[in-house]
Amino acid sequence: MRNVGGAERALRAMFGTGFVVADFFANVQIEVVFLAIGLWGVLTSALGYCPFNSIMGRSTCAVDLRAGA
Fold first, then answer.
1. Element of type H or E holding 4
2. Which residues contact 48 (CB under 8 A, 6 or more apart)?
3. Which of 16, 24, 61, 67 is the most buried (most CB within 10 A)?
4. What is the model's pTM?
5. pLDDT band, residue 64 (cuts 50/70/90)
6. Residue 35: in which H helix or E strand, if any?
7. What is the distance in angstroms between the CA of the first residue and the CA of the last residue of the chain?
8. Residues in contact with 43: Cβ distance below 8 Å, sequence separation at least 6, in sequence order
9. Has residue 66 been placed in a domain?
10. Are 14 and 2 in contact (CB under 8 A)?
């Protein structure tokens, strides 16, 4: 069940990694926010699935896996 396509996965990985790196330079108050946003981006990129995309009925995956089954 994938709903995040190739280009979106690459963008999520880059921005997520950027937020995780920015977390190291942030002050204590904003550090947790940067880490949470960064991990969300990296994990959804790695898994190819985003729960918010499912809720909105959105899919950027080029191949519809449900149609073939």
1. none
2. 2, 3, 4, 9, 61
3. 16
4. 0.80
5. low
6. helix 28-47
7. 12
8. 16
9. no
10. no
